[in-house]
Automatic annotation (TrEMBL):
SMART domains: TIR
Pfam families named in the record: TIR_2 (PF13676)
Any single GO BP term: signal transduction
Residues in TIR domain copies: 9-143
Name of the featured protein: Molecular chaperone Tir
PROSITE patterns documented for this protein: TIR
SUPFAM superfamilies listed in its UniProt record: Toll/Interleukin receptor TIR domain
Coiled-coil parts of chain: none
Length: 144
């Protein structure tokens, strides 16, 4: 199959998120990052009609320097987001340094603790404290 022939790109960041968080946070962040020249794997930019969802996501997970994980109540409930988080976690477990960059979006520490105790240990940004501009600037400085 020639399905993956045209995919040879690598990305600065993969954004793992729940669909429910697109309008309030994820799409504006993805668009701002792209405007800053950051190469973003984001489903609305990266998934083409008729492409294999799993293959395209796996490619993005494997070929992104960082995985921004937008942790929300919706994220915690979904299978696809867990699949993406598992892929990013596997990369860290295989010896890659910092891959996962968590953003807490309308969740509490206890929500995250119940979902994934190891994620509570990671320094996270929080949409109740950090603006989209600040989050984009932090990512930009990590990529330098």
């Amino acid at each position: 199959s020639d399905e993956t022939e045209d995919i040879t790109e690598s990305y600065d960041v993969f954004i793992s998120h729940a669909t429910e968080d697109k309008d309030s946070f994820v799409r504006p962040l993805a668009e701002l990052l792209r405007a800053k020249g950051i190469n973003v794997w984001y489903d609305e930019f990266s998934l083409g009609w008729g492409k294999s969802l799993r293959k395209t996501i796996d490619y993005g997970l494997a070929n992104s320097r960082f995985g921004v994980v937008v942790l929300s109540k919706s994220f915690i409930k979904k299978d696809w987001t867990e699949y993406e988080l598992n892929g990013l976690t596997a990369r860290e477990m295989s010896g890659e340094n910092q891959v996962i960059l968590p953003i807490w979006h309308e969740v509490s520490k206890s929500d995250i603790l119940k979902f994934s105790p190891t994620l509570v240990d990671k320094m996270a940004l929080n949409t109740s404290i950090n603006t989209i501009d600040e989050i984009a600037e932090q990512l930009e400085s990590l990529l330098k």
